[in-house]
Amino acid sequence: MKCPYCKAPMVEEAIAFIVQLEDGQELRLEDVPTWVCESCDHTEVEQDVIDAVEDMLEHMDTVTEENDDQDDSA
Ligand SMILES: [Zn+2]
Asked: Model pTM?
């Protein structure tokens, strides 16, 4: 993929996104595959990823906070 602005190559990175929900809640998405321009830092998310996120949000009637995913590597 190339940057639509400066035509430089884009690299895929996993980035955290904050999504604002309709009811005012904020949802933090970790590791969203995102294309980042090496030259101008323009970011672009593929439509497939957007669709997946929207699909996930539609099925979020029962949201549970999971805090038991700790990494205690002592
Ligand atoms: Zn660019």
From this structure: 0.65
